[in-house]
């Protein structure tokens, strides 16, 4: 049952001709806002510990879930079936049941999940902790996020791992594990067979539903010397429109694929996009409507757009910084901030 609701006036002007404020948003216990729409009227909004639902395009929001456990991500595959980290609903959020996963602490850490249409087939990624002694830990350099303290004076060192379910999360089977990867961070799938997994050190692709994973390749004839310079870049986000894909990295580099994620070429070199801020100048999220038009949300919350498939980007004027964006179709593009829900015209 709904626990509370927030209402607002009809859409009002935000001061820019291409951005309109749709509504004020409920605020619970803080944290970054995340949105998703399953239709032009039905959508979902989450903060750190709450989940709200709208049935009128964002004018009104009803609270459907609240917990003391952190809400870091969610996904609805349709109006009824949704996943909220380790919880699942089959009735549109009215009731939830806990999913048992092999990445529950202290065995591992769950970083991201993706489910296909219908909610039966899905993947979770993160890290499995391998016990090591203090002496072994001191001999090898491990990143801080890949180490946890375990009982009996042992430590756990993370090994990146991918699991798959075929029954909606009731059971899981391991598909891929690597000691060269300390943590898998996210996934992006084109269809139930083709997808990419973003790790802290590399990006991997599958063409068989995850039964096998290989590191992506960069074409020797389409990658310049600037891309080969050693840096501490890591992949941040991926987006696909059919077999065309885009990758963003923490140093501002972007790559593009035309074969479903198997091979990639240079698209944007670090420093080529004129970000508003030099601090963390990269896209935390990239989304495309088609092979030409896309939006990018920078690390500092500014919006950018491209009309040539990502080769060039221009800032979109706004007097606020956004926390998330969602592209449903050309007529329904939303962005959220603490100031409210906004509609964006391409």
Give structural notes.
The structure is a single chain. This protein has 346 residues and is mainly beta. The chain has helices at residues 134-139, 225-228, and strands at residues 5-6, 12-16, 19-23, 34-37, 43-46, 50-54, 61-66, 74-76, 82-84, 87-89, 97-98, 108-115, 122-132, 147-150, 154-165, 173-178, 184-189, 195-199, 203-206, 214-215, 217-218, 235-241, 244-249, 254-257, 263-268, 283-288, 294-298, 303-306, 314-315, 324-329, 332-337, 340-344. A five-stranded antiparallel β-sheet has the order 1-7-6-5-4, with no helix packed on it. Strands 2-3-32-31-30 form a five-stranded antiparallel β-sheet, with no helix packed on it. Strands 12, 13, 14, 15 and 16 form a five-stranded antiparallel β-sheet that branches. Strand 27 (294-298) and strand 28 (303-306) form a beta hairpin. The chain is built from two helices and 32 strands. Mean pLDDT is 88; it is low at 1-15. The chain starts with a strand and ends with a strand. The chain is globular, with a radius of gyration of 20 Å.
What is this structure's SSE topology?
Elements: E1 5-6, E2 12-16, E3 19-23, E4 34-37, E5 43-46, E6 50-54, E7 61-66, E8 74-76, E9 82-84, E10 87-89, E11 97-98, E12 108-115, E13 122-132, H1 134-139, E14 147-150, E15 154-165, E16 173-178, E17 184-189, E18 195-199, E19 203-206, E20 214-215, E21 217-218, H2 225-228, E22 235-241, E23 244-249, E24 254-257, E25 263-268, E26 283-288, E27 294-298, E28 303-306, E29 314-315, E30 324-329, E31 332-337, E32 340-344
Parallel strand pairs: 21-25
Antiparallel strand pairs: 1-7, 2-3, 3-32, 4-5, 5-6, 6-7, 8-9, 9-10, 10-11, 12-13, 13-15, 14-15, 15-16, 17-18, 18-19, 19-20, 22-23, 23-24, 24-25, 26-27, 27-28, 28-29, 30-31, 31-32
């Amino acid at each position: 049952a709904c626990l509370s609701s927030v209402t607002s006036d009809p859409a009002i002007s935000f001061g820019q001709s291409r951005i309109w404020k749709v509504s004020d948003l409920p605020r619970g216990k803080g944290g970054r806002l995340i949105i998703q729409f399953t239709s032009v009227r039905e959508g979902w909004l989450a903060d750190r510990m709450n989940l709200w639902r709208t049935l009128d395009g964002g004018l009104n929001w009803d609270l459907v879930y609240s917990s003391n456990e952190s809400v870091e991500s969610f996904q609805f595959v349709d109006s009824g079936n949704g996943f909220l980290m380790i919880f699942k609903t089959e009735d549109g959020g009215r009731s939830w049941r806990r999913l048992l996963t092999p990445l529950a602490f202290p065995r591992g850490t769950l970083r991201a999940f993706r489910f296909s249409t219908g909610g039966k087939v899905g993947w979770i990624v993160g890290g499995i902790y391998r016990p090591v002694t203090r002496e072994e830990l001191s001999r090898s350099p491990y990143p801080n996020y890949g180490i946890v303290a375990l009982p009996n004076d042992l430590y756990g060192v993370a090994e990146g791992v991918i699991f798959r379910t075929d029954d909606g999360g009731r059971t899981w089977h391991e598909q891929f594990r690597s000691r060269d990867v300390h943590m898998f961070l996210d996934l992006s799938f084109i269809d139930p067979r083709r997808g990419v997994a973003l790790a802290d050190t590399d990006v991997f692709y599958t063409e068989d539903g995850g039964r096998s994973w290989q590191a992506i390749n960069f074409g020797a004839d389409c990658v310049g010397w600037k891309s080969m310079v050693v840096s501490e870049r890591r992949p941040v986000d991926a987006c696909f429109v059919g077999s065309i894909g885009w990758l963003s990295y923490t140093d501002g580099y972007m790559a593009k694929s035309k074969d479903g994620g198997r091979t990639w070429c240079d698209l944007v070199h670090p420093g080529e996009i004129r970000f508003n801020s030099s601090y963390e100048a990269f896209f935390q999220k990239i989304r495309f409507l088609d092979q030409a038009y896309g939006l990018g949300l920078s690390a500092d919350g500014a919006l950018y757009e491209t009309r040539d498939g990502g080769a060039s980007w221009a800032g979109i004027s706004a007097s606020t910084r956004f926390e998330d964006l969602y592209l449903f179709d050309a007529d329904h593009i939303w962005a959220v901030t603490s100031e409210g829900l906004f509609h964006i015209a391409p």
